[in-house]
Task: structure prediction
Amino acid sequence: MRELGVILLAAGLGKRMKSSLPKVLHRLGGKPLLFYPLRTARELNPQRVVIVVGSGADAVRRACGDEEITWVLQERQLGTGHAVRCTKEIFQGFSGDLLILSGDVPSVSESSLLRLLRQHREHNAALTLLTASLEQPLGYGRILRNHRDELIGIVEERDAGEPEKKIKEVNAGIYLVSPSFLFSALEGLNNHNQQGEYYLPDIVGVALKSGQTVRTVQVEDAREILGINTREELAIMEKALQERINRKWMEAGVTLKDPQTTYIEEEVSLGRDTVIGPNTHLMGHTVIGERCLIDGNAYVTDARLGDGVHLRFSVVLTDCRIEEGAIVGPFAHLRPGTSLGRGVHIGNFVETKQAIIGEGSKANHLTYLGDVTVGRETNIGAGTITCNYDGFQKYRTTIGDRVQVGSDSTLVAPVRLGDDVYVATATTVRHDVPAGTLVYNQRNERVREGWTEQKRKKMMKA
Ligand code: UD1
Ligand code: CA
Result:
């Protein structure tokens, strides 16, 4: 089997995006655009993967963070032909096939690339290109054919005359080439065109002139080759991706009350008979069990929910774990390191962080639980605050089983409350409390009779 090398073009700024972020780092389905062609390329098990970077090169490298990539810098973006030429040294002596992909064409499938590869090898071609027939070919290079339907060249949109613009067959920007042909053909390119760039598609003309075999493969589903050049195209593709994912989950037995406003990222998994309300975002490696109910307005990242969990309206969950039958919200914020046991209730305006809360415990109203371990069947009263930070360091609070924390209490960490402790309302707890103990602060509640009337008179005079 001949070796395979991949060149991924990702140096362009993407002027049409009007962005300071390199185009290939704009996100689709939560991941940088570049991730997609890179993943598809990897499915072909290439011996080498080379990415050409230029605009925002460091940021692009960081986003990929992979040891198995060879990075090539194209200092000035003089065109796709020039970008490929920058890899010449790396492929010196390489005799396999080279697959050239665009960083801004995310949806091309492995099977289309395999067809391209097969066609190229079967015909021992110098160059094989992927094409598609688009109803709206605006912006793409057009495939020019003679009356015998033989390929004669490619013309870019901006260089095309009116009759050429009517051609619907377009260049996908994806090519298989033999390296010996490629690098010599690139030497002969010029930049005499509307954009003053060295166009990679011009190698088609070079190949044909020198009598080399050039083949084309048309994709079956033209949507595969759509490129992202503008924010509008990005939004359209995002929508298509969302529809595909949502359809998959509905087919798998999940109810989406409003698929239009349900955003599920690719790695998320959902159990059967889960019901999801409008405006729900499920992201990262989130795993949702069976028969869960998500009322709506949920922003969930990297969370793991057991079966039958109920997320009431409006919650934000990040990097947390929720066991079977727990109820969260409305308006709750579970931050990283939160772990809720079975049947836990977290109510409105409750924030948790690094909080391990045991089975059946409740914090239903207006509470902050940070750096805390809570036992089972404990009740945290309204307005309870764990004071976990003294301005220098964070400390932990540990609360036992069956503890009753009265409303408006402050637990000043580090502090431990044993099992069956009873914290009276509005207590500031600064020291450890042994099991079975009542804790309260000395308070002298005083009254002054007639005070209100006196105050009122004084104010009226002034
Ligand atoms: C290109 C093709 C066009 C094809 C279309 C398919 C050229 C001249 N035209 O047009 O025939 O129909 O793709 O999507 O190739 N890049 C670099 N360095 C550069 C310029 C671009 O690395 O100097 C990279 C970009 O980051 C991008 C890719 O090459 O990932 C394509 O460049 P882009 O400017 O988007 O080309 P199109 O105008 O879409
Ligand atoms: Ca493009």
The longest strand covers residues 345-357. The chain has a mean pLDDT of 97.
